[in-house]
Every structure is written in C-alpha cells, then in structure tokens.
Amino acid sequence: MIDSMRERFTRVTGDLLRTDDRTVVVLAVIGHSLFADQGLTHRYPQRIIDVGIREQAQIGVAGGLALQGFKPIVSGYAPFLIDRAYEQIKLDLAHQGSSAVLVSVGASWDSSGSGRTHLAPEDVALMTTLPEWSVHVPGHPDELELLLRHEHGLGSSAYIRTSIQSNSRPYTTAPGRISTLRHGSDAAPTVLVMGPLVDVTLDAVRDLDVTMLYATTPRPLDTGALRAEVTGTDVVLIEPYLVGTSVAGVMKALSDRPIRLFAHGVTDPDIRRYGTPNEHRAAHHLDASGIREFVIRSTAAPVAGR
Amino acid sequence: MSLMTGDEKHSEAATSTLDVLWILYDRVLNVSPTNPEAKTRDRFYLSKGHGPMAYYAVLTAKGFLDPSTLHDFGSFHSQLGHHPDRQLVNGVEISSGSLGHGLALAVGATIGLGTDQTDTRVFCLLGDGELDEGSNHEAIALAGRLGLFRLTAIVIDNQSSMHGWPNGIERRFEVEGWTSAVVDGRDHEEIHRGLVASHHESPHVVVANVGSRS
C-alpha cells in the first residue's frame, strides 16, 4: 500500500530537518498533528514553528527566517496558504529576493465536501505570476518526494501542490521534465496532461491516435521536450485546476509553429456543490469520459489504426 | 448531531456553538423563516463556519430548514455542506468556512444599515481560534472607532487558539472601545443576559466560555 502525498511530505521533511539544520518548517495549525505524531515537533521544537491560524503571518515569518539564512518549508491548505496569503508571498518572499518551498494540501476539489471556501483551483495560476518561482503538481508520492528534495536542495523558491488524488504509479524520475507516455502518428494531436490526471487521461485516449505527454511542472515548462514531441498541429492541454493556466507557457514554447491549442480544466470554480472529489472531477468533465469527449470534439482525433 | 448528519469532522466545533445559537434564535434574533429577507430583520453572521451542524439543527428547529434535508448532509446534491452557503440555505446570511471573514462583513453590514433602521441589529459569531486571523483585529478596531453600537460579536472560547489569549479575549475588544460580557457558554440565562446587555454607543462582545476543546 502506498502512502499519501501528505504522509510522504511529512516523512521527507523530517529527513530534511535531520540532515540540514537550516531547514525550518512553518505551519498554521494544518499539518501540526502529522509532525507531532512522528515526534518531529518534540525533536525540533525550535525549527517547527506553528504560528496558529495566521496564514498571512505564516508567510511573513517564513520570509523573516529566510532573511536569516534558513530554508523554510511552509505548509498549509491551498486556499489559505496561497489564495489568502498571496500578497505576503509576493512581497515577503519574492520581492525580498528570499526563497521558500511552499507545500499545499487540499488541491482543487480534494475537500469537495467543504464547499467553496476550501476549493482552490486558482492557486497554480496565481503562483505562475511570480517571477523566478517554480510550480509543481506531482501526480504520485514518489514524484512529490523527488520534487521536494530537488527544490530544497537547490534552496530555490517553489510551490508544490499535493493532492489526495494520485496516479497508480510515478511517471517521471526527472524533476521538471516532460515525459512521453505514448507516441501517435506524426500528424496526431498531442495531449499534454498535468499531475494526477494521467491515469484517467490514458484511459480516455486509450484507442485514439494521439501522442501523450506528462508534466509535473507547469512552470517552468519543459519547452525543449514539448518542441521535440509535438509533431502535429493540434495540442490539447489538460490541467486539474483553472482552465488555461499553462496556455501561455505552451504558446511561448511553440510560438513559431502553426498550432491549435485546446485547453481543458476547471471552468467554473464555484459550482456550489458538496459531495465527493470524484463527483467534482466529473462535474468539471475531467473524468475519463469528459476528457475523451473534449479531445475528440476539439481535434477530431481518430481511433488508432483506422 | 453527527450521527444524524454524518459530519464527524467538526463535532467539537458544532457542539461548542449549540447553546449560543439556540438562545440567539429562540430568544434574541428578530428573524422569521416565512420572511427571511425582511428588511428590518436582525442579521446573524456565522463567521465560525466550521461545524455548521448545530447551525443547521437550530435553523431546522426554527422552521428555516425542512428536516428531510438533513439526511444527505454533505452529498453532491445536498444544500447542506461542511460549511454553509448563503445561496443554498434559507436563513443563512453569509457563506463561511474560511476563518476571519465574518466580522468585517458584519462591520460593513452594520455601516450599511445606516441610521434609519434603528431596531435592526447585527450579530456575528466567531471562535477563539479564529481570532488568530489578523483580519479580525482590523475589523475590531474599525468597529470601535466607528462606534457601531448595533453590532454584537460573540466569541465561543473553547481554548482552541494555538497561542491563547492570556489577558482575556474581552480585553482585546475593550481596548478598541467595545463593551464586553463574559458568560458561561452552556448557561442559557447568562448567555441571554450577555447578548441583550445595553450598549448604546459602542459595539459589544460576548465571550462564551465552553471549556477546553468542547
């Protein structure tokens, strides 16, 4: 049985606390119990700081720690860590020239039963507005660990978005690189899928003549691989968050080519529904049938071999 | 309640507010399920949107909700989720669940009532943990400066704030010009006295102690 991304995050962060005494963890209650359960709050009382339910101060405190030479890992619920504290991220970290790794839980519709206040499909788009920041959407706990260790090792500024949704296996072992999962014919549409939607997308296009690419990193987008793998004119971008978030990145990579780009993602962030994550994914047409319909309707992709 | 609604996640938050909510709707608020949009109604804003089970239960008891809506709480087709949505639930004044929003909305609503509806009051319910959010303190200061006497905040104190309020929650309001009452959050008479205490020139806060993490 694989662990969840959140469990893996806690375990890997514990390892980073042990191996690098510049590592500090800044929490705003969310996640505290996981660190406590592993004995980490007891072991590192000076380097695991819980500010209480104060997400704006959480980022400011991380910025201050970064100014003193620490390497903050800041974790919280996506709508509060990112949406609420965006200005603090922009000014207290980015504008100061300071670095931190922000790791969220509660991706898009993960907390569907909680309604709009706990839904965060806009976070990736917000974070892609910040120069010099990397944005990662891992699709598997192994990918999360890879990206967290990579960014912490670099001491760079990164946002890593964890999710309760996960692919059945990791599809990449190279941080930031696009993986080619399937080759279609030369003229076939290219489907670029982000994060934990790989399995459903593979199912959706199982008999279609498409090239399928996978990325965990919408920013910076692996333009070299994208340019090498796109051989036709049609590109379908599938993202488990706000529709069109990575359109600019794809267009920039392929700006010298006559392509048609079709973006699929969350078009209505406020659907005023509760229920399960799978029900929300279907409501956004990001289940296998919804993705299949979008790909066929957009590109008229033929069934392979016909 | 959690057995009825299936919401076990926020049982503590819900049970902490139950007595205050009941007294508000049973004895204090001028609201009616048959005319929930009445211009002169009192406004009640549940800022502490976590654990709305008690809220839904009281709204049901008072005729705002059909009891049959409770059984599928939290489902895709239910109007009742883990945080209330004002566009889905009759009688709910604000959508809430993200902490630290309700009091500023209540301040704005109190200002917006102007001076021509002198009997209309605004009540806002928060939690002691929620007071950690800095936005509350901007609203507390503003309400005090503006002398919003028709505004009453209720803080449910179940000692869930990470770093606590060692000088007393009421003190934080008093320094900004609010009047205050500290009550036993399970004692209905004390709650009622605190909620209807006279405050003609300043906003008022009722701190309702309900014990640790109850």
Write the layout of secondary structure elements.
The complex is a heterodimer of chains A (306) and B (214).
Chain A: H1 5-19, E1 23-27, H2 32-37, H3 40-43, E2 48-50, H4 55-67, E3 71-77, H5 78-84, H6 86-94, E4 101-105, H7 123-127, E5 134-136, H8 141-154, E6 158-161, E7 179-182, E8 190-194, H9 198-204, E9 211-215, H10 223-229, E10 234-242, H11 247-253, E11 260-266, H12 277-283, H13 288-299
Parallel strand pairs in A: 1-2, 1-3, 3-4, 4-6, 5-6, 8-9, 8-10, 10-11
Antiparallel strand pairs in A: 7-9
Chain B: H1 2-5, H2 11-28, E1 43-46, H3 53-61, H4 102-113, E2 122-127, H5 134-146, E3 151-157, H6 169-174, E4 179-184, H7 188-196, E5 204-209
The strand count of chain A comes to: 11
Tell me the strand order in the biggest sheet of chain A: 2-1-3-4-6-5
| Number of contiguous helices of chain A | 13
Low-confidence stretches of chain B: 1-9
Listing every helix as H and every strand as E from the N terminus to the C terminus, the arrangement of chain A reads HEHHEHEHHEHEHEEEHEHEHEHH
Largest sheet of chain A: 6 strands, parallel
The N- to C-terminal Cα distance of chain A equals 40 Å
Q: What are the segments of chain A in which pLDDT stays under 50 over at least 5 consecutive residues? A: none
Number of helices of chain B: 7
Q: Give the radius of gyration of chain B.
A: 16 Å
Overall helicity of chain B: 25-40%
Helix/strand/pairing category of chain A: alpha/beta
Assembly annotation: heterodimer
* Major sheet of chain B: 5 strands, parallel
Q: What's the rounded overall pLDDT mean of chain B?
A: 91
> Which outline of chain A best applies?
globular
Interface with most residues:
A-B, 26 and 27 residues
| Percent in strands of chain A | 15-25%
Structural summary, described in words:
Chain A is 37% helix and 19% strand. Chain A is of the alpha/beta class and 306 residues long. In chain A, helix 1 (5-19) packs parallel to helix 8, helix 4 packs parallel to helix 6 and helix 9 packs across helix 13. With 214 residues, chain B is α/β, with parallel strands linked by helices. In chain B, 33% of the residues lie in helices and 14% in strands. Residues 1-9 of chain B have low confidence and may be disordered. Classes of the chains: A alpha/beta (306), B alpha/beta (214).
